[in-house]
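To: structure desk
From: M.T.
Subject: fold request, one chain
Message: Could you run this one when you get a chance? Sequence is below, nothing fancy, just the single chain.
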Amino acid sequence: GTLVSVQLIVTQGATKWEHLMINGTHYLVVASLLNKFGHVSNSELFAWNGTQFTSAQRLLTTGARGWKAFDIAGSHYLVVASRRNVTSYHVNSEVFKWNGTHFVSFQSISTLGATDWEYFTVQGEHYIVVANHFDGNSHQIDSEVFKWDGSQFVSFQLIPTNGANDWEHFEIDGTHYLALANFQTKLTHQLSSEVFKWDGTQLTSIQLIPTVGAATWTHFVMDAIHYLVVASHQNDANTYNLNSTVFTWNGACFV
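Reply: Done. Structure tokens follow.
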């Protein structure tokens, strides 16, 4: 079979979609970054009505770069990565909570040019980690892990990153890992991205992987073998025709 177009949805500067399901209903939420007037202030949630997706809610966002959906104790949440507003990369990213009929603002988290959130659980504890990309002056800034304390997310761990663009969580033999895509420093797109392992108390770096303008990582399993593939966006010569690389797990590291 082949994929065929089933619906056109009007969006503004869309950067990412996220799917979620609530009480049997499928939803899609789009991150809207820009329109011709600047960084837009609304993203949109769409609900499946049985035949198509229809607008269900506009969500107040600032230069949205991505969404992550997750559940905690039966409650549904969305967190947006806020890239910037008109004047600054120092903008809050917002956690929204489903109140039974729609999403409401739940918690504001200070972020720096945020591009991505990842959610993961370890031994019943809930965590979200933000990719802080740029603070207006430097790409060499900390990204941050937050832990759920029972009522909100609190800062848990700072991780030095270089133009962080994406986090990817995965498990191998019961051990939790996170792959970080480092996109750039002020001087170069040729730098190392990084793999972190949960050591029982926090994330610890276990491997540096040379990458060029790493935009995202995707983990997958095929024939019981674990793989990571990186999306290489651009190099220092602003060339976009690049090799993106697939890595395989050899039992200790990716090669």
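Reply (cont.): The radius of gyration is 18 Å. Let me know if you need anything else for the meeting.
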